[in-house]
Amino acid sequence: MEMKRIIGVVVLAIGLVLLGFAYHSTNAPMEKISDAMTGRYSNQTMWYFAVGVAAAVGGGLLALFGSRK
User: Fold this and answer.
1) What is the pTM of this model?
2) How do the domains of the chain map onto residue ranges?
């Protein structure tokens, strides 16, 4: 396996872990109160979602197409 593919798989895994953190963060009691009062999640939760999606997509693409020359 090429180094680019390995890095892609690692970044994909990190992205999925961050998405898991974001999902669990949305179920926290303070997050539910914040969502009920303001209609949106906290900045930290939104960063987890944004960075998690970006890392998962980027890592997946790198893992799929990283070995092409």
Assistant:
1) 0.82
2) 3-65
